[in-house]
Design a protein that fits this description.
It comes from Sporosarcina jeotgali. This is Competence protein ComK. InterPro entries: ComK. The chain is an alpha+beta fold and 182 residues long. It has one domain. It has helices at 43-53, 58-69, 133-153, and strands at 2-3, 13-20, 26-32, 35-39, 77-80, 85-89, 100-102, 106-111, 116-121, 126-132, 169-172, 178-181. The strands form three sheets. The protein has a seven-stranded mixed sheet with strand order 1-4-3-2-7-6-5, sandwiched between helices. The protein has a three-stranded antiparallel sheet with strand order 8-9-10. The longest helix is centred in the last third of the chain and has 21 residues, at 133-153. The protein is elongated.
């Protein structure tokens, strides 16, 4: 197990667990590929830190996801649209027991004997999570919906450039408004 001072989540990061030190401090333990790292940040703060590196915050990402998905709880967030990195919490993100899962690393999930969920990751690891199968299925479904809607919305903002036929002279008039002259 390696201590990671930076806590930058890459495309290979798959799951974040709470990790309590011997002194009871809450840190994060996350899997990247086939290695585990411990970061001296709470899982909530680790996700927030990584979102801030891209110019937003966990609060902003949740608010943005609510615009796309409608309101809800335990909202998935997009860490990087460019790299298709979507994370979802399995319980309230503020809970010290919250686990975050990266959508890209889930191969499949099944209901286990305890009525909870067993997740099979793409790196061939298996994780039993303290969450009912149906709640987990809803979380993952919302994350897929968020990914689909965000990635399809990207096409709406692209417009093929047309030749410009007019030019303008724009200047401030007296008062508050601007004047446009051809």
């Amino acid at each position: 197990m390696t201590h990671n001072q930076h806590g930058i989540l890459t495309t290979e990061a798959s799951i974040i667990f709470p990790h309590f030190t011997e002194r009871g401090e809450l840190h994060s333990k996350y899997m990247e590929g086939d290695r585990f790292y411990i970061v001296e940040k709470k899982p909530y703060d680790l996700i927030d830190f990584n979102l801030r590196l891209s110019g937003t915050s966990l609060k902003g990402a949740v608010e943005g996801a609510h615009v796309v998905l409608g309101s809800g709880t335990m909202t998935p967030v997009v860490l990087s649209k460019k790299h298709s990195i979507y994370w979802t919490p399995i319980m309230s993100p503020k809970s010290p027991h919250c686990i975050w899962v990266s959508l890209a690393h889930i191969r499949k999930f099944v209901k286990n004997k305890k009525g909870e969920v067993t997740v099979y990751l793409k790196n061939e690891s298996t994780v039993d999570l303290p969450c009912s199968y149906y709640k987990f299925e809803r979380r993952i479904s919302r994350a897929y919906t968020l990914r689909y809607k965000i990635e399809s919305n990207a096409d709406q903002v692209v417009k093929v450039a047309e030749p410009y036929l007019k030019t303008y002279y724009i200047r401030k008039k007296l008062g508050l408004n601007y004047e446009v002259e051809e």
